[in-house]
Amino acid sequence: MAKRQDTKKFFENLSGSGKSIGVLTSGGDAQGMNAAVRAVVRMGIYVGAKVYFIHEGYQGMVDGGENIEEASWESVSSMLQVGGTVIGSARCKEFRSHEGRLKAAHHLVQHGITNLCVIGGDGSLTGANLFREEWSGLLEELVQQGLIDQEAAQNNSELHIVGMVGSIDNDFCGTDMTIGTDSALHRIIEVVDAIMTTAQSHQRTFVLEVMGRHCGYLALVSALACGADWVLIPEMPPEDGWEEQMCQKLSENRAGKKRLNIIIVAEGAIDCHNKPITTEYIKDLVVRCLGFDTRVTILGHVQRGGTPSAFDRILASRMGVEAVLALLEASATTPACVVSLCGNQAVRLPLMECVQMTQDVQKAMDEKNFEEAVRLRGRSFENNLNTYKLLSFRKADSELPHSSFNVAVLNVGAPAAGMNAAVRSAVRVGISEGHKMFAVNDGFEGFYKGQIKEIKWGDVGGWTGQGGSILGTKRTLPAKYLDKIAEQIRIHNINALLVIGGFEAFECLLQLYEARTSHEDFCIPMCMLPATISNNVPGTDLSIGADTSLNAIVETCDRIKQSASGTKRRVFIIETMGGYCGYLASVGGLAAGADAVYIYEEPFDIRDLQSNVEHLTEKMKTGIQRGLVLRNENSNVNFTTDFIYQLYSEEGKGVFDCRKNVLGHMQQGGAPSPFDRNFGTKISAKAIQWISKKLKESYKEGKVFANTEDTACLLGMRRRALVFQPVVQLKEETDFVHRIPKEQWWLKLRPLMKILAKYKTSYDVSDSGQLEHVTRIRPKKD
């Protein structure tokens, strides 16, 4: 073990004592900014630094006085679940002038602040970088004017800056997701889901305008997530004659028994002549050409409001801690950086490279070079765009590539939100690839009973927003019924299988792979998509359904915390699902601001329970008189939820009282979150394209024969990429007794949760973001 320790770098060596960090939010507000502020404050205090709030963004820095205020641990309590920014944000003209920046520098020096953490959009971050470049000049001026002495200039000679991007538009290059984007999508999808029910009743067409003056991300992703009929975004202006095409598509959809149409428009949508396309123009067009009853809804500032989603809280908390680490490690030569997310990985990127690339997008769009703009937006945007095109435009039968392959889709295991989005995507992409798609009801139980029927393009309309599993799902494993399943494969001439499910689906694929030696019928390409709320499947960092479940847990914890705040001195013990996998409890605990989380993967004993009780007793002496403790259902056989509840009740007598809550199956239900709809849609489309490729490769002498390891794969998200991994190779990585992977990435988030709950802990920063450079994908030259 000692050897492994050497390669690790722990942040105990990074001390913040003697340093002062200023944190500000600037520009338009975004949900999750408070979570970022909270993380910066607590991590800063934890490493021994002083942390200051700079109220009202740059305006507060210029005005000084009470706007710059030292933060305490308690001052950021109860911020996590609040939308917007508690420390205020303002657009500041004065900071753009030299005089304004001189005043700001003076106020920072007065407090000894030489580390700035700026949470805002590209304008705010560019301003911060300019400020840093001018810093030594500004200090010289302040000395000349006699406002500060030479010693103060010496002590504050370097200004370090780290940025975090808070913007609901997701319009910043170099980061997959900006803080606030996921929450804004939640607001949009809540509205669209609500509108769909009324549109259905009256057979109406709805035109929705979403935010995004220069960036179509929100419009594009919400269109993907609700299966909109048409989307208009600045990066993809429609060709001349689009009005006719759109009306034709709307009327085709109505003819195909669809009772409603949804058209989503980004506020910055333009046509190919740079002329704005407004919602009113579209409404008049639909009424004039088709006579459909049409309504317009402009979402406006609703999208900025409301409580941050689980994803935004975790993103902001991770980024906030990362920002403090980056400030502690900064030197005079390191460029100002932004902490950002690439895939599931925290990265640091030079601020100006990102800003430059973001400005290049705008330049490309001004020059009508839209393909370049899309490419510069990054791979996440490009993937979304390509998936939307694949799923929305049904080709005429004559245009389809002709394949004589039949592909079956089924759900296995417990229901998970987002399964239906994955099935819809598989069916539509499969049909576009020329295959015949078959749906199997009730998992492998339905398979051996012959519950298999062809499923068409129109059959999966409206499935993205539905929770649970429409096809039906069972935990039955195929091993006992191999002969009957093989017979059904022959009867229906099934040439490939797409299995969507959790740990059982993984076991099913392994059993079918191993049965290839005795049954040639299983020598077909097989792919599995991880879909389980527990997120306990090997070979993937994330599973379809886990995000929806996290949001359900976090929403409930918010309500419980509110109830506890009212009664004072109350501790809640909450039990989450997940089998032996502590993902929901740990990540839910991080997003809800839990004081302790008990999981199977991190063994605990009576001493740990005792120290947690003492920690809460201390907490009750402060202004925050409530506690939240999460326990995974299988974390310990003997320390049950009841036991922990009784222990806390006894030990806390006279200091706090206790309540317990078992969340149960509410964690499995509900409409899928935007993330799960999109994740399901995208990985499913990718899986079908892989199946098509494998079918072509393994088709010889009139039949499909695939018996190699790489034709039975699981498609998972690994750090930064989606990867197909042979299930047989994942066997080594799996603990089959407890149904969890042997190595789980999220365990490294646990110290983060402990730090933010004021526990002393060891935090491995060897995996924290190293400074990288923005990569530009150059188009291939022919």
Automatic annotation (TrEMBL):
InterPro entries: 6-Pfructokinase_euk, ATP_PFK, PFK_vert-type, Phosphofructokinase_CS, Phosphofructokinase_dom, PKF_sf. One of its GO terms (molecular function) is 6-phosphofructokinase activity. Its cofactor is Mg(2+). Pathway: Carbohydrate degradation; glycolysis; D-glyceraldehyde 3-phosphate and glycerone phosphate from D-glucose: step 3/4. Residues 1-393 are annotated as: N-terminal catalytic PFK domain 1. Allosterically activated by ADP, AMP, or fructose 2,6-bisphosphate, and allosterically inhibited by ATP or citrate. Mg(2+) binds at residue 122. GO terms for cellular component: 6-phosphofructokinase complex; membrane. The active site is at 169 (proton acceptor). ATP binds at residues 28, 91-92, 121-124. The keyword Iron does not apply. The keyword Chaperone does not apply. Homo- and heterotetramers. HAMAP family: Phosphofructokinase_I_E (MF_03184). This is ATP-dependent 6-phosphofructokinase. It comes from Esox lucius.
